[in-house]
Amino acid sequence: MKYNPNEIEAKWQKHWADNKTFKAENNSEKPKYYVLDMFPYPSGAGLHVGHPLGYIASDVYSRYKRHRGFNVLHPMGYDSFGLPAEQYAIQTGQRPEDTTSVNIDGGVDKEGNKIAGYRKQLDKIGFSFDWSREVRTSNPDYYKHTQWIFIQLFNSWYNKNTDKAEDISTLVSIFTTEGNANVNAVCDDNIQAFSSSEWNAFSSDEQQKILLQYRLTYLAETEVNWCPGLGTVLANDEIVNGVSERGGFPVIRKKMTQWSMRISAYAERLLQGLNDIDWSESIKESQRNWIGKSVGAMVSFNVLPSTINQQPSTIQVFTTRPDTIFGVTFMTLAPEHELVAQITTPEQKSAVDAYIEKTAKRSERERMADVKTISGVFTGAYAEHPFTKEPISVWIGDYVLAGYGTGAVMAVPCGDERDYAFANFFKGQNGMPEIKNIFDKDISESAFGAKEGFQLVDSDFLNGLGYKEGTKKVIAELEKIGQGKGKINYRLRDAVFSRQRYWGEPFPVYYVNGLPQMIEAKHLPIVLPEVEKYLPTEDGLPPLGNATIWAWDSVNNKVVDTDLVDNATIFPLELNTMPGWAGSSWYWMRYMDAKNDGEFASKDALKYWESVDLYIGGSEHATGHLLYSRFWNKFLKDKGFAPTEEPFKKLINQGMILGMSAFVHSLNITVLGDIDDIFYRIKILITESIFKKYNSCFIDKNFLSSDEFLRNIVFNQLPKEYAENDDFDINLQFFKERNVDISLINEITNELDVDGFKNDSKYSDFKYSKFITEENGKYIVGREIEKMSKSKYNVVTPDDICNEYGADTLRLYEMFLGPLEQAKPWNTAGISGVFGFLKKLWRLYFDENGLIVNNDAPTKDNLKSLHKTIKKVAEDIEGFSFNTSVSQFMICVNELSTQNCHSRTILEPLAILISPYAPHIAEELWAQLGNTASISTVDFPVFEAKHLVESEKEYPVSFNGKMRFTMTLPLDLTKEQIEEIVMKDERTQKQLDGKTPNKVIIVPGKIINLVG
């Protein structure tokens, strides 16, 4: 009976689907275990073999926990809103919801592209997902709850006294009876104080504007990353080297009125919560750095009046080194700082404006990373030192960020390297004074940045003090004069929550007198309208500005024609949509109760599942998704919905599977006449061995003079009239590498299918190229390990592997590649070994005539092999060392094959052991052994240590240190008994040849050595 993976796998995948084998119950007597994967964005390109790595690992663990008696929730869904679908809609005119649906379910899109479909690809790999709980963030039945959570955030404020979010009505109550003087809230800066009588006298609009300064989600003018090419705001993690990650479009900084989330309110809780979760230290450290807690002081510097600035202005600075205040030499503002336009003098205006325009083209991340470039402009303005009252020049520089601290720095060049470099760069220019040194240290070569080992000098009342004493004293003095106070600051900024896109969650918001109003929850969802174009409007409004039916009828509570807006009962709806992270910030809770239409999840479901026990996903989400998810979870906990403070107990980041790219080396030859007319042009492709041999010549471009063979490579490709005529110049373009589709490569020999390459439309420019091959006439490509990517043509699809070798082979191979957390290269050539292992496993149970499993009693060796594997596999799965489990399976099957073991006592538990890794073959073996129920919940085999206790030892018997034969003896023998047996053995007598050894060395359990 032959092993036929395709037939077996189709059979069991259908069985699991028909019988809902992996459906989790919200009420069970079994202990619960929740395993979650970071759900995918369903792109049209589908899955490549790198994508399932984490899913396979989580599936192995889920199946193992079921064997251990747990009620396992292992769901899957799709993060289906996003920019790629919208960009595709702009290019093709197809509705994003249509293309997204095809990408998930498979089929053919309107462009005629055949789409595999994520669902079919996932099913083909045999995952034990509970598909009854599938979510798609772009479905209205999902995002109605995202809209509801947004409303809860809008209707909440953060009370520092209780250290939690509370309903906005409690704040209104305080305002009504007390005013805001004693309110201790996370809110906007510089809020005006008012009494209860003043509050009660405010108009409704005035009250709403004040409340926006306290709400956890609010409208504000914010510095954003604006991408004109995409027509939207981008998050920092969507920008690479100053351009958009998608499309490579330039990004500039500009101010826009945006929705923001007051995540900064949770900074300390986000920081402290890291102590309570089982995550890698590297991910925790990334979050700690992103949150960026700093202890210091807030200092006020009054701007000195000038001819243009007669209004009193104050520059607020947060510093972690208030002890250095007497070393302030100048001040630097971020170019975007709101005071820049106000304080810049007429003489400096043109220079300042030009610098601001230039800076706007650089992202915050780029500015933070660039520590070498020094640039800035003097504003012409001066501020007053709070103690000495001396004037301090005010500059702008892009090393200061508007979004960090207050966007202003009191520059102390003697104590900070960046300030030191800035001061020296502009030394001697108008507005840049000499550096003041306040340390008893030499700063002629560099700044002194240490917080210990010094005494302050030239620092008035701080002279002779160190960091701690100086900090404490200066804060007290600042508070006395009303120009500062001690403060804890965080790098974490409030998160911009608006996107100028179509394909995202609509805000449940309409506007009355320009102020946002929430639509009642009972009227949700507010569904995305149809639009003709997915681009911004001609006057720059977001794509929803193209909608003809996008206004809110506040009487009938429904979306109506935009032309009906009268600002009396019918009002404009919000034109921005929510960002991609909105739906992914709470999706794990929806899985707990995915079909609940009335609420995002019932209290009972939330109470039962509580939080995710194991979360597996990529480390690239360390400071985006994971931070926002923790924020939303903590907020929902404050509001009485989420049962736990943290959403994910244990997090594992899987490494990347890298592709093995292939590439050709091309040399372009151009023949030029006297006036640079092109007479002839040809491309030559050089096989890998020749390129390697002459690599240095190619790089130096001097191969025509250095080697006859190389000279012939060029001239033998040219017509004689050019090659032998001095009137023509030969121009050689530098060698290039060009990625080649790996489907055109023999993965074993690395040989290129030359005809296929020439006829592939992707390489039309090489159709008439000359190929310089190996001596055997074959063209060998170069190979390189790099990120698996469609653009590099190195993608291997799981479908192809499953079709040829089966899903169980794919699953085992991906786990076998190496430790889960590490990056590892894919090599299709190596997969045949795993396939061979599964066929060898099959032959333990079957021969060509059928089942050969018997009821014979197992031997000691059989039991030893089995229990060694039980122990190893259990330990490995619990420790997430999946690759070593696969190695143990191979060892076990080899041993049992050598032992000619076909005992049911051994092979039944072996099928259970391998079931988490290779579930299809395990189910088939289990069924063929006469079992009727699925193997998926059968108890995991119990390890019995007694089978690993050695009762015998195979001793090497040596003569004068050279081993001559071995002898198996019981381990409980004494030295004397061992010596007696050895001496009587005929092989010993033959070696001694009648002689008596001088010494017999015996170490029980280890060695036997006869000397002399």
UniProtKB/TrEMBL annotation:
Entry binding sites for ATP: K790
Domain (Methionyl/Valyl/Leucyl/Isoleucyl-tRNA synthetase anticodon-binding): residue spans on this chain: 863-975
Motif mapping: 'KMSKS' region: 787-791
Leucyl-tRNA synthetase editing domain mapped to chain residues: 288-478
InterPro entries for this protein: aa-tRNA-synth_I_CS, aa-tRNA-synth_Ia, Leu-tRNA-ligase, Leu_tRNA-synth_edit, M/V/L/I-tRNA-synth_anticd-bd, Rossmann-like_a/b/a_fold, tRNAsynth_Ia_anticodon-bd, Val/Leu/Ile-tRNA-synth_edit
Lineage: superkingdom: Bacteria
Compartments where found: Cytoplasm
Entry annotated with the keyword Protein biosynthesis: yes
Keyword terms: Aminoacyl-tRNA synthetase, ATP-binding, Cytoplasm, Ligase, Nucleotide-binding, Protein biosynthesis
Domain Aminoacyl-tRNA synthetase class Ia residues, every copy: 11-155, 783-813
Any single GO CC term annotated in Swiss-Prot or TrEMBL for this entry: cytosol
Gene Ontology biological-process annotations: leucyl-tRNA aminoacylation
TM region positions: none
Keyword field contains Thylakoid: no
EC nos: 6.1.1.4
Catalytic activity field: tRNA(Leu) + L-leucine + ATP = L-leucyl-tRNA(Leu) + AMP + diphosphate
Molecular function as annotated in GO: aminoacyl-tRNA deacylase activity; ATP binding; leucine-tRNA ligase activity
HAMAP family for the chain: Leu_tRNA_synth_B
Family: Belongs to the class-I aminoacyl-tRNA synthetase family.
Protein's UniProt name: Leucine--tRNA ligase
Species per Swiss-Prot/TrEMBL record: Flavobacterium alvei
Lineage, opening ranks: Bacteria, Pseudomonadati, Bacteroidota, Flavobacteriia, Flavobacteriales
